[in-house]
Fold this sequence. Notes:
Blueprint: H1 2-35, H2 38-63, H3 71-99, H4 104-124
Helix pairs in contact: 1-2, 1-4, 2-3, 2-4
Amino acid sequence: MVKRQQGMGAKRTIKNIITIQFIVTLLAITLSLILVDVKAAYSAGVGGGISIIVTLYFANKVFSAGVGSPAASVARMFYIGEVIKIALTVILFSVAILWLNVSFLPLFFTYVATLLAFWLVLLLN
């Protein structure tokens, strides 16, 4: 029962991270739309979307080991997930910059803001 509760706490943390990242993305979109233009708002949405996608991937990979799995298995999933998360981030940024006609600064700043939110939620939980 304790292991299941630990797994539920981790899943709740991931839910909180995704929720905060989504809120930060919506705030960035709104501010970009008000202060700059539609392209900046779109770019902010793409930047936040990249962060949310890679966070969801990473969480799915880490939790694929399952509650109660040996520590070595969890660590392996963590490291594999982290490497693929970095590669996925590079790929998604490349796609955004090369093919989506985005403004780099709103894209990058929103990504960084959502990444900071990720770490902030981890620190506070």
